[in-house]
Design a protein that fits this description.
Elements (H helix, E strand, L loop, with lengths): L2 E5 L4 H12 L4 E6 L11 E5 L5 H11 L5 E4 L20 H22 L9 E6 L15 H24 L3 E7 L2 E2 L16 E2 L1 H13 L9 E3 L8
Helix pairs in contact: 1-5, 2-3, 3-4
Amino acid sequence: MRRAVVIGSGGGIGAGLVRGLAARGWEEVHALSRHPPAEEAPGPVRPGIIDIADAASIEAAATAIGGPLDLVVVATGLLSEGDRRPERSLRELDAEWLGRLFQVNATGPALALRHFTPWLARDRRSVFAALSARVGSISDNRLGGWYGYRASKAALNMIVRTAAIELARTRPQAICVGLHPGTVDTALSKPFQRAVPAERLFTPDAAAAQLLDVLDGLGMQDTGQCLAWDGSWVEP
């Protein structure tokens, strides 16, 4: 039985991943979000509760699901919230907002790694993936701005890389990666879509399908990397 966990199934990409995994014949898909449906979904989908900003919630969700797990995807992310928007200059930096961005984009996924990777299958290939972003690449940063989002995604990429090294010692068939989905037509990107060409603005289901194809094609040479929606490596 292939068992998958999608953390952040209430978002556009997360919901697309859940639908895609079910359509591809996964026998058990745990769809975790802060506000899951009141009733269990038909088929392989198993709704559950998680709050990526709450350490106790992450640990409880992992313990409740148990293992062995073949795939864990953290499909959460924060770019703007309320009247908070990505910073355009140093004078806009705010300690509380920076902390919030790191909490959701880096600390939460790190704690998911802590609590879910012990449940990854030991006797076969398994994958842990977290949604990252190309703007988290230090070498690719030529425009500046978006301090907190860039920095928190860069931190996530380092966490993924470091976890991949540790996992290789105990689970040599486990792969740990970041994923850059491109620009997806979701609430996260809605205020920033104006300059995006139509062919590069993906629907949630199209983005999820592309990411699942990338996950299917992963090899051990990819562990510790951040991969884009087309399978290419994002330079650190």
